[in-house]
Queue: 2 jobs
Job 1
Amino acid sequence: MQLSIPSTRARLSRERCRRARLARTFAACAAALASHSAPAAPWALQVRSSTGQPVSDAVVAVELNGEPRGAAPQTIAQMAQRQRQFQPFVLVIQTGTAVSFPNFDTVRHHVYSFSPTKTFDIKLYSGTPARPEVFDKPGVATLGCNIHDRMSAHIVVVDTPLFAKSDAAGWVRMDLPPGQHRLLYWHPRLGSLTLRSQPLRLGPDGATTELLLELAAD
Ligand SMILES: [Cu+2]
């Protein structure tokens, strides 16, 4: 078998190309690592009202530059109905999450949302609807039940896996890398279906942030 010169050249150039591809991948990888090479440090945020009271059930999310934003495929969350109430009252999910609406009551519910973030209507049903609803846009959806006017809840959809709800003392805690991030927040009593945002600059040693909210009366 004879190895012709052109085919040797072709093989060499393929090899060079492969190495160049690897080098580019490595460079991209190294750049990505450099931007997040500093270890995450504890970050705590307390949400309080303008009168100084701790605020629970506030949604807090942090977007890091260059991080993946949508939820992994098949991510599922649940908004249940028990004793003619939605549970939880506020559900936070990552964009792309599918939400199921199981009804654990003996009465039937008719769950809907007219919010632009996600419009849907699950007509009178018992048990668990066959198909979950996928929330593919960030924002806030307000839920209701056509049968029980007092039933109400919110689904808050964020473009980041870093999210939490404030606890009874108003605290949210996360480990975050240093950098220039974006803090997003929302509370039912802010009276808007849009999340608010502000820059969040963090150093390498962790930090505590205070967030004061002007809340409407209950
Ligand atoms: Cu109902």
Job 2
Amino acid sequence: MVGSGHLGANGTVEPLPEDFDASAVIKEPVPPTVAESENVKRAIVLGKNVHTLCLEVTEPDADDEITGERDAYMASVLSKYKKSLTERTKHHLGYPYNLDFDYGALSQLQHFSINNLGDPFIESNYGVHSRQFEVGVLDWFARLWEIEKDEYWGYMTNCGTEGNLHGILVGREVLPDGILYASQESHYSVFKAARMYRMDCVKIATLHTGEIDCNDFKAKLLLHKDKPAIVNVNIGTTVKGAVDDLDLVIKTLEDTGFSRDKFYIHCDGALFGLMMPFVKLAPKVSFKKPIGSVSVSGHKFVGCPMPCGVQITRLEHINVLSNNVEYLASRDATIMGSRNGHAPIFLWYTLNRKGYRGFQKEVQKCLRNAHYFKDRLREAGVGAMLNELSSTVVFERPHDEEFVRKWQLACQGNIAHVVVMPNVTKGKLDDFLNELVEKRAQWFKDDKFQQYCIASEVGETCCLCPLHKGK
Ligand SMILES: Cc1ncc(COP(=O)(O)O)c(C=O)c1O
């Protein structure tokens, strides 16, 4: 057998065969191309098939290094790509990403493979890390969500989804036979967690606003009083930007007889986790309340060139989840292995520049612009809804997919939404609206299309279809 280190029957290491040459190379390392079968075409049901647009990776010619042709080709591809990114960034309204940032000062760090694998609070053997930045960022969020430095544990995740996967996992480890409760408008990652962890999951109805319906929550809790409750609370739902009433959720649990050792609450603050603390009327997300964890996406309101997130939980919970890993000289309490070490530096940079006060101003601006946009839509005869604590404006789905694609709107059923982030100015909203009004004149001309009724999605008062207009 070729291979080093194989133990013989008596425990001795078998010597390598004499003809073994570790430096021998395979003569032709380029594998044959895989022909696409004529009969079996790739079936893609949703969206566009990216395979038709893909930039093939081609094998360099032997003399490419001398002619420089390859470098020139790659430079031209990248330059075209940059142009298209600039264009796509200009016309982006549908996803909750703040695209306005300048991290030029950090470009000097691109040459380093920064990896925070393992626990943020325990230095591993790998020295090219950014834990000092990561813990600084975590402390900032811990202060925002009111938990002492020596009482929390957290880490920077790859995204809000990972925060949900972690928060729900901690809940499951603390209450192993708990049932997961989540409103039907929760992000799909919550239901993904239930599937991954094979947890029983109960979906709770929502109000028209998208907020969890605590009457239904109570009724469902009463059906399963013998099992602990692990509850996902939305600090901003994906489609309608609804903020669940955390205080009412806690009261419902307590009124139904669930003592504090019988429930665990994870707050999914992916969207508005960083906005709500600055809105006076919003239910406060705070570890002074009986919650177990909070997560937020870093690339959304903060703005960051790569997806990332923050997850904070109570230190007391994390010991049930973690193992020591000798190979890392660290503890493994995270979901992933390798962790992006650049992302903490990006967040640290913005948090330092803006501070709590800077974020507060941006939140106010977004809420103001969102109200402006909702009012203008309605003046133009477009049915629209805006939750009081939200900057997600929901309105009638446009009838033209080209228009939807241009503005990168997220649509569901008869509704679409625009999420007003700090980079979305009144000017951009006006441009969008003017184009929408023009298009609508074409769509509805000669009754080509009918105006959508969105009453079942957002309630009759927000719908301006012929049936509900004026009601
Ligand atoms: C409410 C909510 N939770 C979780 C997520 C997932 O966040 P991410 O895209 O960062 O994984 C989203 C994404 O939009 C969201 O809206």
